[in-house]
C-alpha cells in the first residue's frame, strides 16, 4: 500500500507539470497564430504597394515610349529643316556667281565707255 501512495504522490505533481507545459504550448501557439496573422497583413500591404509600384513603372515606360517617339519625329523634322537650308544656300551661291558676272560685265562696259 505504501507504494501505491507514493506513486499517486509522484503522478499528481507530474500532472500539474504536464498541464503547465500544455498551457505554455497553448500560449505559444496563440502567440504564433497572432504573429502569422500580422505577417499576412504585412504581406497584403506589401503586395498592394508592389502592385502600385508596378503600375507606376508601366506608366513611366509608356511616357518614355511617347518621348522617344517625339524625339524621332523631332530628329526627322530637324533633318528636313537642315536639307531645306542646304538647298536654299546653293541657289544663293549661284546668285552670288551671277552677281559677280554682272559686276564684271558692268565694269567691262564702263571700261569700254572710257575708251
Name some characteristics of this structure.
115 residues; mainly alpha; 1 helix
Protein topology:
Layout: H1 2-114
Give your account of this protein's structure.
The protein has 115 residues and is mainly α. The protein is 98% helix and 0% strand. It is built from one helix and no strands. It is rod-shaped and about 150 Å long. The chain starts with a helix and ends with a helix.
Mean pLDDT: 84
Instruction: Please state the CA-atom Rg, rounded to the nearest Å.
Output: 49 Å
Secondary structure category:
mainly alpha
Helix content range of the residues, please? over 70%
Alpha-carbon distance between the two ends? 167 Å
Short description:
The chain contains one helix and no strands.
